[in-house]
């Protein structure tokens, strides 16, 4: 037997009492439940030490013994009436100790030296809600990046950062050889259409007079349609680039949306390539609040829940909205998922990269929850545990469920009542004791 390094000082003071470690495999829970009880003493007949005194030294040697009542501590019907005279399973299927597992100090003096601190559980005084950090960002569906449509040189700027622009408003004028070449092609295509149309009319007239064959008319029509298609293609390409500037080899870059210019990368005389981002235009009438929801609280958040948001720097205002999206992935570093809320911003008070706090309204459970400090709640796998002081030297494990977090505590449901003294400082140590390889096998035992 040796002490675990993490709790070498205090763990020697503790003994976690549960079922005794058996030399053979313990029977499955169903079999244990079916075993007969001693009608006189209310414990399992096979291990009743009152009827079988020879078993007493065996349980004493294992450290599983209640001197006050002369029963194995793990199933003493007086100390643990909730167990019905039957031993508990060492650990539940989820890896956490069973509800009701007791951790008892050897003496009250050692309990004092352990340095555990408790606070009373209190009633929840307001509706259930969860608090989480918020970052304000632009609405991605209302932001546009304006790119150069063709390579060229910036000759004039028509808007700058902070400018309010409408749809189609000019942003910059760019002189482009490629645009000039396309203009020349367009002129040639216009002329080609005119020639093809005249040629078609001539052959059509000759065919009517019986001079030209039908085949010549069809060939002329085909040439005309090909010329028209080429002209349409060139015009479409030029339309994507922008409007002409007085017939010169220049085009005007325009805004695709109404909003404010938030970024300008173009400067006069700058040589820009095709598809190079020159401006960003954003409609700020609606902003997004991105809420970082902890992985452990995601089950309590769903689309449609109402949210109140307080933003740093706007202390006198509160913004309201509803959850419209919850990310399907968890951030590997922060272990949070992003929930999104759209916020109306008609006066532009909300700005990108502001920080704040969100209060997400959770389902009301009729006020049945009590509130404990976050330090009182310990996690083992998917289970949550709280340790309640039964006496100066005894603490009981209570399984709880998290109803909401934030503010000044955690709202929980379970067998913790208002006024119960829950362990805050030292709760991790108690959890460690309940998770030993064999509860009741002795303090700091290593198998």
Q: Mind telling me the C-alpha Rg?
A: 39 Å
Span from first to last CA?
A: 9 Å
Strand content: 25-35%
Largest sheet: 8 strands, antiparallel
Helix proportion range: 10-25%
- Gross morphology is elongated
Mean model confidence by pLDDT: 78
Number of helices, counting only DSSP H or I runs of 4 residues or more: 6
Query: Segments where pLDDT lies below 50 for 5+ residues?
Result: 1-33, 437-447
Structural class estimated from helices and strands: alpha+beta
Count of strand segments? 25
Could you write a compact summary of the structure shown?
With about 450 residues, the chain is α+β, with helices and mostly antiparallel strands.
Q: In words, what does this structure look like?
A:
- This protein has 6 helices and 25 strands.
- The protein has 447 residues and is α+β, with helices and mostly antiparallel strands.
- The termini are close together.
């Amino acid at each position: 037997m040796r002490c675990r390094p993490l709790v070498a000082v205090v763990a020697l003071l503790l003994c976690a009492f549960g079922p005794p470690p058996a030399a053979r495999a313990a029977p499955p829970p169903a079999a244990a439940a079916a075993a007969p009880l001693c009608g006189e003493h209310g414990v399992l007949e096979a291990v009743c030490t009152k009827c079988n005194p020879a078993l007493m030294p065996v349980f004493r040697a294992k450290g599983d013994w209640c001197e006050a009542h002369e029963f194995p501590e793990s199933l003493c019907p007086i100390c643990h009436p909730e167990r019905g005279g039957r031993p508990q399973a060492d650990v539940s299927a989820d890896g956490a100790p069973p509800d009701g597992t007791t951790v008892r100090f050897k003496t009250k003096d050692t309990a004092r030296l352990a340095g555990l601190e408790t606070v009373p559980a209190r009633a929840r005084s307001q509706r259930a809600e969860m608090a989480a950090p918020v970052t304000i960002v632009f609405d991605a569906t209302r932001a546009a990046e304006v790119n150069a449509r063709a390579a060229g040189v910036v000759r004039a700027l028509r808007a700058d950062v902070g400018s309010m622009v409408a749809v189609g408003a000019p942003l910059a004028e760019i002189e482009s050889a490629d645009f000039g070449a396309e203009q020349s092609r367009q002129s040639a295509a216009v002329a080609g259409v005119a020639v093809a149309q005249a040629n078609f009319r001539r052959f059509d007239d000759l065919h009517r007079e019986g001079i030209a064959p039908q085949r010549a008319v069809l060939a002329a029509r085909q040439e005309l349609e090909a010329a028209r298609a080429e002209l349409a293609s060139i015009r479409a390409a030029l339309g994507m680039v922008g409007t002409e500037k007085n017939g010169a080899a220049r085009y005007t870059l325009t805004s695709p949306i109404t909003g404010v210019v938030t970024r300008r990368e173009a400067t006069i005389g700058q040589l820009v390539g095709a598809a190079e981002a020159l401006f960003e235009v954003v409609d700020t009438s609606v902003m997004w609040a991105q809420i970082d929801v902890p992985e452990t609280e995601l089950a309590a958040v769903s689309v449609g829940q109402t949210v109140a948001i307080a933003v740093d720097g706007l202390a006198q205002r509160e913004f309201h909205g509803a959850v419209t999206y919850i990310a399907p992935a968890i951030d590997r570093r922060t272990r949070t998922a992003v929930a999104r809320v759209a916020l109306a911003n008609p006066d532009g008070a909300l700005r990108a990269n502001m920080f704040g706090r969100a209060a997400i309204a959770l389902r009301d459970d009729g006020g049945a929850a009590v509130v404990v400090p976050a330090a009182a709640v310990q996690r083992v796998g998917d289970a949550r545990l709280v340790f309640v002081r039964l006496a100066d030297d005894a603490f009981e494990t209570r399984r709880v469920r998290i109803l909401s977090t934030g503010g000044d505590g955690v709202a929980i449901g379970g067998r913790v009542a208002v006024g119960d003294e829950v362990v805050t400082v030292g709760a991790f140590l108690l959890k460690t004791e309940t998770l030993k390889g064999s509860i009741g096998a002795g303090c700091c035992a290593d198998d």
